[in-house]
From TrEMBL:
Keyword Membrane: yes
UniProt main location, coarse: membrane
Alphabetical UniProt keywords: Cell outer membrane, Ion transport, Iron, Iron transport, Membrane, Receptor, Signal, TonB box, Transmembrane, Transmembrane beta strand, Transport
Gene Ontology cellular component annotations, sorted alphabetically: cell outer membrane
Name assigned to this protein: TonB-dependent receptor
Stretch forming the signal peptide: 1-23
Domain TonB-dependent receptor-like beta-barrel: 241-699
Domain named TonB-dependent receptor plug: residues: 48-156
Entry membrane topology: Multi-pass membrane protein
């Protein structure tokens, strides 16, 4: 795709809305005196002043968790899952409060938005690779329709990389981690570091780098070799100009990752609570990402003008053994290419009890996707297809905050957006070799008499996203808020159509080949309190969401396609629940946190067959919503003790429980309940800056899958010839990319 990003992006206007959240200490929740990221929409100075449910982790807390990528925080907050889909390395599969995506199809918009340095990532792919030198990560729960440049229905994950500094600082760390259980593969070596300092008066720089060499956590029983290798390199550079009323920060990051295909378990060949893998096709995953951001802030005295420009170019090629067995039955090759740019411009002004923000947003991306399926085991010729799409977003917003009195504040916001998508789709079917990205696959005409090659189509969606919040300041240390917000996720097109007859029949009924937008109305009542001495912090929220036209990828086994993956607006749903979080410092050096999340998610209306029995009835209505575990709860403890005047011992332990939950809409694919236990122990020298850390992840060796799709073949001794919701024995085989089990590691670090 074209890399000429500056063609018109500078002239775009956009909304800057970066909801602030409170930084965390190593124990978890932050205290009231920690300053949050200042934003134009909600410039709260602490979590007490922010009317919404948030979890934030600063750089110190990230190190305590031995953070490697965003999945390191998947068990860090109630009602939150930050997982990868597993099919392709680096593809996010995030879900918050039961709303998320369970697909690797690149044309599906994220339900949980990822924002890096204020820039929205328009593609789930390339979101979850090893990273380095982060300042803070904030997890916002619930729709963010008026809060960012792009609508999100489930929530938002805000990643802030470290800025250049006017003083000299830096770090270097090297570590090794790997399996300790017999029958597993080998370990991973990681080196990372950063340096920052002044260049001249008002101008500073920062450079960061990471190199990780993972030789494969699993053992492939097919050949006895380690499997799951991934080698990743990240380079990031930044400049910051800060003088007078003008501040400009620019960053450019390059990432490359190469390695094996998906580490996929087969629940028909092996028990689903084991880490056994046996695949004949090793496959590969090659990814490259180039991302740049430019943020400018101008203090005009009466107000502040902020502009954020972002650009990204991402490419990925994969090969996977989809049958997940030692027999060469089903292999798939894919290529994904994406280029995006966006610009946000906003103006914020405060006068007396009134605060006003107004601005605009422009986003453009091009996505191309090629897929080849090899089912030659059945004597079939290769299948080729995919899609390409232009996607444009235009947005305007305004928000007013008014202090009615010393104890009551009102907030009203409104965002208008228009999204346009134009797509060319080639059905993934048996045909001569071709590439949608290169323009050699046909979109028109017939593949064979009576079956079309594909289609070209374009469609637009206009949305209004309101937000209303009332905040009652019961005291200086306590707030109660009540809010309503609406979020939208635009419709789109399926790049992976393998059943054209069924697809065209549904499209004719709906009057369009595009699936429609998803809409969420969210009502939230919350309260927050902090003790006057700052040693105790409590927050809780009750939420109720009405979800219309849920966008889902319905996955069913197919003997001709291997897997049939259809994207529809499947249902309406009601999701309600609660979240409670607490942080306390009962003694010097000791910090404790606890959290509880409850989600009650039910369908209220069904539009498509979900159970796979070709009828829409009570069986569909009784199914559980995917990615909506009923209970999450856990906590953490951190203890610092001085061993001498210059030596400090730090111990951290993190625990989180997650209930069993469905992965697929028919509930055939699922994950067992899990109890995730991580820990670390470090000894640091405050005088010399050296720290030695021993750490462990997933100490209880829990088995969790990034996907769990049933296949019509490749079964084994654990298959029973029948599919049923939450049945540990599948009909035949499964494609179930598996996460790592128990890991132990050691790291040596130096900071100055």
């Amino acid at each position: 795709m074209n890399r000429q990003v500056l063609r018109s992006g500078i002239s775009a206007v956009a909304m800057l809305v970066s909801l602030p959240v409170m930084a965390q200490e190593s124990a978890g929740e932050a205290s009231d005196d920690v300053i949050v990221i200042e934003a134009t929409i909600d410039a709260a100075s602490s979590v007490l002043e922010f009317p919404g449910a948030v979890t934030a982790v600063d750089a110190e807390a990230l190190e305590a968790r031995q953070f490697r990528d965003l999945t390191s925080l998947s068990y860090a907050a109630p009602n939150v899952q930050l997982e990868t889909v597993g099919t392709f390395k680096g593809v996010s599969n995030f879900a918050i409060r039961g709303l998320g995506v369970n697909s690797s199809i690149p044309s599906i918009d994220p339900a949980v938005g990822l924002f890096v340095d204020g820039v929205y990532m328009g593609l789930n792919a390339g979101s979850v690779f090893d990273t380095v030198d982060l300042a803070q990560i904030d997890i916002l729960r619930g729709p963010q329709g008026t809060s960012f440049g792009q609508n999100t229905t489930g929530g938002a994950v805000m990643v802030q990389t470290a800025d250049p500094t006017e003083h000299w600082e830096g770090f270097a760390r090297i570590g090794y981690e790997g399996p300790v259980d017999s029958g597993r593969g080998t370990g991973m070596l990681t080196a990372r570091g950063a340096i920052s300092g002044p260049i001249t008066d008002g101008l500073s720089f920062r450079v960061a780098a990471l190199k990780s060499d993972d030789n494969g956590y699993f053992t492939n029983q097919f050949d006895g070799e380690s499997y799951g290798a991934a080698n990743t390199t990240v380079l990031r550079g930044g400049l910051k100009y800060d003088k007078g009323p003008l501040e400009i920060t620019g960053k450019l990051e390059w990432m490359e990752s190469t390695g094996d295909g998906a580490a996929t378990h087969n629940n028909g060949l092996f028990a689903r609570d084991t880490f056994e893998i046996s695949v004949n096709q090793r496959g590969f995953n090659d990814s490259e990402n180039l991302f740049g951001s430019l943020r400018a802030e101008l203090d005009l005295g009466a107000g502040k003008l902020t502009n954020i420009f972002g650009w990204r170019d991402y490419r990925q090629a994969t090969r996977n053994d989809i049958d997940s067995s030692p027999t060469p039955i089903f292999q798939s090759d894919t290529v994904t290419e994406q280029e995006q740019w966006s610009n946000e411009l906003s103006y914020a002004v405060e006068t007396g009890p009134l605060r006003l923000v107004a601005g605009g947003y422009l986003f453009h991306q091009q996505i191309g996707y090629d897929e080849q399926r090899d089912l030659s085991f059945f004597g079939a010729a290769p299948q080729f297809g995919g899609g390409r799409q232009d996607h444009d977003v235009y947005g305007l917003f305004g928000q007013v905050d008014f202090d009615v009195s010393e104890i009551l504040s009102l907030k009203a916001g409104l965002r208008w957006s228009r999204e346009e998508k134009a797509a060319d789709i080639t059905y993934v079917r048996t045909r001569p070799a071709c590439s949608v990205i290169a323009g050699t696959c046909p979109f028109t005409g017939e593949r064979v008499p009576g079956e079309n090659n594909g289609f070209s189509d374009e469609r637009s969606w206009e949305n209004f996203s309101p937000r209303l919040v009332a905040t009652l300041r019961a005291s200086e240390d306590a707030n109660i808020y009540l809010g309503w917000s609406r979020g939208h996720r635009s419709g789109g097109y399926n790049f992976r159509i393998t059943q054209p007859d069924a697809f065209e029949e549904v499209s004719m009924m709906l009057g369009s080949p595009a699936f429609d937008r998803e809409l969420v109305d969210s009502f939230e009542l919350g309260a927050k309190w902090q003790s006057p001495d700052g040693l105790v912090f409590l927050q809780g929220a009750l939420f109720w969401m009405e979800v219309d036209n849920i966008q889902r990828e319905v996955v069913l086994p197919s003997i001709t396609a291997g897997l049939a993956q259809s994207i529809y607006n499947t249902a309406d749903a009601r999701i309600k629940g609660l979240e409670l979080e607490a942080a306390v410092e009962p003694a010097d050096g000791l910090s404790l946190t606890a959290n509880l999340g409850f989600t009650d998610a039910d369908y209220t209306r069904i539009y498509q067959d979900l159970s796979g029995d070709n009828v829409i009835d009570a069986a569909d209505l009784a199914l559980e919503l995917p990615r909506a575990p009923r209970w999450t709860y856990g906590g953490s403890a951190s203890y610092d003790v001085a061993l001498s005047d210059t030596k400090v011992l730090t111990a951290n332990i993190f625990y989180q429980h997650r209930s069993r939950y469905a992965y697929t809409d028919n509930n055939w694919g699922f994950n067992y309940a899990s109890d995730m236990l991580d820990a670390s122990l470090s000894v640091g020298c405050t005088e010399c800056g050296v720290t030695l850390t021993v750490f462990a992840r997933n100490l209880l060796d829990e088995v969790q899958f990034g996907a769990d799709a049933g296949l019509p073949f490749a079964g084994g001794p654990f298959s029973d010839g029948d599919d049923a919701p939450f049945d540990p024995a599948p009909n035949a085989g499964t494609f179930s990319p598996i996460n790592k089990g128990r890991v132990l590691g050691v790291e040596l670090g130096y900071e100055f």
